[in-house]
Design goal:
Layout lengths: L12 E9 L8 E6 L18 E6 L6 E9 L4 E5 L3 E2 L6 E7 L4 E6 L2 E7 L14 E2 L12 E10 L1
Antiparallel strand pairs: 1-7, 1-11, 2-3, 2-10, 3-4, 4-5, 4-6, 7-8, 8-9
């Protein structure tokens, strides 16, 4: 394990993903856009085994053509988790998702300029240095959540 502070912003940041979904159904409900968290959970307590880095995933129930986003933010001691509202999607259509975080507790998520979520996460705080190399379109640990589409671009802006 290493530390990857260059891709674990300590303050405010924004991430933009341009992607398309290529399958109407998938056996996996999470389609990873970004993962530096390797979110393994203790089966007894339900708590993550690592609380650093962050994960942004498309959330798609396997029986529906709808999507939302599931986001995990690790501050080093705890993990904040939230899910956006879900919307219908079209196969092959390019979508632009933007995630904004103020580095303290406030976030917003838009899809093609329309709000899907905004609010405050608890406990919040700056992102803890990831201990896994960030991956795009898959998990940092293992290969069991590959993206079922195309990711055209990923852009991180530290503010």
């Amino acid at each position: 394990k290493g530390k990857y502070p260059e891709l674990s912003p300590k303050g405010a940041f924004s991430m933009t993903f341009v992607f398309s979904m290529e399958k109407a159904r998938s056996p996996q409900i999470y389609q990873m856009l970004w993962d530096s968290k390797g979110d393994y959970y203790n089966k007894k307590s339900g708590k993550p085994l690592d609380n650093s880095g962050f994960t942004i995933a498309v959330y798609r129930p396997k029986t529906a053509k709808i999507m939302g986003f599931h986001i995990f933010l690790g501050n080093g001691k705890e993990t904040s988790v939230f899910t956006t509202k879900r919307v219908p999607f079209e196969l092959g259509k390019k979508y632009t998702m933007v995630f904004n975080y103020d580095g303290k507790s406030k976030y917003s998520v838009t899809l093609d300029g329309k709000s899907l979520a905004d609010g405050t996460v608890a406990p919040g705080g700056p992102i803890g240095d990831a201990i896994y190399k960030p991956t795009i379109g898959n998990r940092a640990v293992g290969s069991f959540f590959p993206f079922d589409g195309k990711i055209y671009s990923v852009k991180m802006i530290k503010k």
